[in-house]
Amino acid sequence: MEHAVIPAPAQSLTDPVAVDPVVHRSWRRCRLRFNPHVTPHIVRANPVVLNHICLTYADLIAVARPFMEDIHQFVEGSGYVVLLTDNTGCIVDLLGDPSALRSLADVGIEQGIYWSEGLMGTNAIALALVEAMPVQITGSQHFFHAHHGLTCSAAPVHDARGRIIGVLAMAGRAETAHPHTLAIVMAAARAITNQFQTDMYLQEANRRLAELNSVFGAISEGVLSWNSDGIITHINHQAGLILGVVPRAVLGRRLSDVVELPERLLNADLAGGGVRDVEATLRVVNGVPVDCLVSLQPVCEGQERVIGCILTLRPIERVRRLVHRLVGARATFTLNDVLGQSPAMQRVRHQARLAAKGQAPVLLRGEPGVGKTPLAQAIHNESMRATGPFITLNCRAIPHELMVSEFLGYEGGAFSGAVAEGRPSKFELADGGTLYLEEIDALSLEMQAALLQTINTGHVLRLGGDAAHSRERARHRLHLGPH
C-alpha cells in the first residue's frame, strides 16, 4: 500500500518547485517506506556497540569536541543542542543546556540514536550524509510529522582524504530556527576538516623528519646544517664527533659561536654556489683546528632565494686511509720474510723488532740491493702502525725545484701553477703509518733543515699556509734509507 505525504499547505509532492530539490528527493525516497503520520521507530546502539563506535571515532570526537564547546558557549541558553554523528548517522557526542537535552531527548536526540534516512526519514543529518553538503531542515520539511517541531542544521565532516567520516549538527525547536545556525555549523565542520588535514600533514612531516634523522645517523659523514640567519638547525652524531661538540648542546646556536668556517666556505655560503670535496681546516670555537674534506650545498627556496646550507664533513685521515687502501699504499714484507739464520741476520731481526716498538725515526744503511726497502716494510708491519699507509718517496727522483712542495705540500694558490685545491704534504699522507724516504742523501740542505724541523716539532706547515698541521709522532714513522 502506498502512503500519501501530507506536508504543509505550501509544500506538496505535486508542487516540487516550492520545495528544496534536496528535500523533495528525500521525500520521494521516504514515501515508499514510511507513513509520515506514524511515529518513527527509534533505534539505539547498545552500550557495547556504542563503546566500540566511540573508540573507532575517538580521533573525530577529540578533534570536534573543542569546536562543539565553542559553539555551545556561543548559543548557550538558546535551546540548541550541538551534536556529532559518525558516518552512519549515529550520535556519538552532544552538548547542550540540561533543559534542551531533556526536551529533545523525547524525539530521539540522544547519544547512541541513529538518524539515518532509512530510520528517521527526511532530516538534516541524513541529508548531509546522502548529499554530502550542508543542509538545514526545519518544521514541515521533515518527513515524519513527529519531527515537525524540530529544526536542525548539519554539515558533513571530511577526513584528510576527502571521505565523509561524520556530521556536525545543531538541533533545536522549530520556532528558534535561524539561517545563521547553518553558517555556524558549516564553519565549524570546515575547521574540523582542516584540522584533520593539518594533523595528517604534521604526521607526514614527522615521519619524514624521523626518516631524515635516521639517514643522517646512518651515514658515516658528519652533517651540519644552518638556516639563513646562521642558526644551526641540525647536526648529526658523526659531526659532533668530528668537531668535538655535543649535538644537543649546539643545536639552535649560531654557527659562528660553534665553529669558524674558512673564508672560501663563507664566500660559497653567501654566494649560494656551493663547493664539493674541498680540504679545509675548521676552527672549533674554544677548541682545536679540525682538518676535514667538506662539501657545502645551499638550500634554496624556488630558483634563487637561499634559506640555508648543508655542510658534510669527512675526517681527512679517514679519506686518506680509504685512498691508501684503494691504491695499495701498503707494505707486504714481514720479518718472517727475512730469511737467514746466521748471527748477523738474527741481530738484524732483533734490531728491527726493537725499532718497531719505538717512536723515533729509523735510519737504514747498506749497499744497494741488500734489501733496505723490504726491511723497512717489515719494521712497519711489526709496529703498531701496521694498519696505516706505507708511503715510499725516492728523494733523488724529485726535481730540486719541486722538492719542497712535494715534501711539505701547499695551499691552493700558494704559487703560480699550483692546484686550486692545494696538495697535502707527504707527512699528512703517511699519517698513522710510515713514510719511507729512499736515498735521503739526495736532499738539499734546505730540505734537510725543513725535515729536521718537522721531526722535532711534529708539525707541518704547508707552503702558503698560515696554520700548522699537527701530527703526533706516535702516529707516523720515518724510515730513512740512503745508499
Textual characterization of the structure:
There is one protein chain. With 483 residues, the chain is of the alpha+beta class. The protein has 3 domains: 16-201, GAF domain (Beta-Lactamase, 2-Layer Sandwich), CATH 3.30.450.40; 220-315, Beta-Lactamase (2-Layer Sandwich); 328-481, P-loop containing nucleotide triphosphate hydrolases (Rossmann fold, 3-Layer(aba) Sandwich). Helix content is 37%, strand content 21%. The protein has helices at 21-30, 47-56, 58-75, 98-105, 117-120, 124-131, 179-218, 237-243, 247-250, 263-271, 316-327, 343-357, 372-382, 403-408, 426-429, 445-457, and strands spanning 81-86, 91-96, 135-138, 150-158, 164-173, 222-227, 232-235, 259-260, 275-284, 289-301, 305-315, 362-363, 390-394, 434-438, 459-460, 469-470, 477-481. Strand 10 and strand 11 (305-315) form a beta hairpin. Helix 3 (58-75) packs antiparallel against helix 7 (179-218) and helix 12 packs across helix 13. The radius of gyration is 42 Å and the shape is rod-shaped. The protein starts with 20 loop residues before the first helix and ends with a strand. Residues 1-17 and 471-476 have low confidence and may be disordered.
